[in-house]
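Record type: monomer structure entry
Structure origin: computed from sequence
Chain ID: A
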Amino acid sequence: MEISHLIYLVIVIAIVLFIGVCSVLAKRISLLRAECQQQQAQLSVLQEQLLANQQELQEVRVGSIGMGDKIKALVTMVKQTATQQEQLANQDPQSRLYQQAAKLVAGGYSVEELMRECDMPKAEAELIYNLHKG
């Protein structure tokens, strides 16, 4: 065999190998493109989910701020109501007597003990006893 035939054979083999490598690389590039497209689709879905979650979080934040304001207002109202109730209870001496009788019943006093401690008639003591026994 002559050298020119060997060179020709080497060139043909090199071209075949080059085509094979190019074919493998083309397939790999195709697979990588497909994978990239899948990842881009997943990224789009994740970005949409992230946006939805951020919007929900913002709604929760706004709602919690609103609820905090409402709770503060309710606490203020409860304090005012408690103060008003206390003032009303202190204004009416008869009310104080009934409050004391209710506390005595809660403490285990009998009807007779209520009559004696609060200086009230039996019917009234029985009524308070029956209302507050527990």
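Annotation 1: The chain has a mean pLDDT of 89.
Annotation 2: The radius of gyration is 45 Å.
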